[in-house]
Amino acid sequence: MNNIYLPHIATIKKVEPQTPDTALISIVMDDLDIANQFNYLPGQFALLSVFGVGECPISFTSSPTYIGAPLQFCIRGIGKVTKAIVSLYEGEKIGIRGPFGNGFPIEQIEGKNLLFVAGGIGLIPLRSLINYVLDNRNDYNEIEIIYGAKSPADLCFKEELKNWNKDANVYLTVDKGDKNWKEYVGFVPQILENINPTHKDKVAFICGPPIMIKIVIDTLRKMEYPDNHIITTLEMKMKCGVGKCGRCNIENKYICIDGPVFTVEELKRLLWTG
C-alpha cells in the first residue's frame, strides 16, 4: 500500500529545458510495485525532495492516461529546492511522495465544452488535464486553449502546442513579440476578451499569476460564465501537503487538502474578493 508520508526513491530519466529557467523532469520510481500502485489525477501534486537540500510541492504535468510512462514535473528554478531539482542530471536520484490534494472534476465535465486559460508556468498543471481530455477526445466537445507568456522564449511545451492545435483551438499570445512572432500580442485577459468564447455549456479552467487569475475570473463572469463553471488551481504557500503546517490555510480550509483545485463558487465562501 502506498504510504503518502514516505518518500519513495525515483530516478531521473530525462531533463528537457522549456524556458531559460524552467525544465521538464521525467522520473521513474525504482520500486516497480510502488510505481504500479501510484495513481493520481490531473490537478493533484506530489512532494519532491532533493536529499540534503529539502522538499517542495510540485503539480503533476504528465497525464495519468500515459500508463507506464514516467511521471513528469515542469519546474522553474527560483528557490533553494527547485534550483536543486532543475540542476540534477539524468540518472540521479530524487524523492517523491504523494499524490496530494484534489484533482480536476474529470467525470463532471464529460460531454461539455472546455476552455483553458493559462499564463506563464500556469500551463504546467493544466497540461495534465489538457492531455487527459485530448486522450479521451470523444468524451468532450469543443476545446479552446488560450495561453500567454512574457515572450516567445517563455512559452512552455512549444512543440506540444502545435500538436494540440490538431484537436483543439489554440490561441497564443505574448506580452512582447519578436520578428518571428505571428500570433497575438497582448496580455491574456485582453486576448480572452477579443476571442470572447461563448459560455454555453462550457467549463473554464484557469492557472497563472494571481493577478491574471483574478482578472480572468472577472472577465469570465462578465461573459456570463457561472461561478461553478470557472475552476482554478491555487498553489501558493503550500508546503507540507497534509494540512499540518498551517501555511496554506484560508479560513477553515487548507489548499493542500481541500484544493489546490477550487471553483469560484467555492472560493466565494472563503476570503475571496472576486
Please explain how this structure is put together.
The protein has two domains: 93 residues, Beta Barrel (Elongation Factor Tu (Ef-tu), domain 3); 121 residues, Nucleotide-binding domain of ferredoxin-NADP reductase (FNR) module (Rossmann fold). It is built from eight helices and 15 strands. It starts with 7 loop residues before the first strand and ends in a 6-residue tail after the last helix. The radius of gyration is 18 Å and the shape is globular. It is 23% helix and 31% strand. It is an alpha/beta fold and 274 residues long. The strands form three sheets. It has a seven-stranded mixed β-sheet with strand order 10-9-8-7-11-12-15, sandwiched between helices. Helix 5 runs parallel beside helix 6.
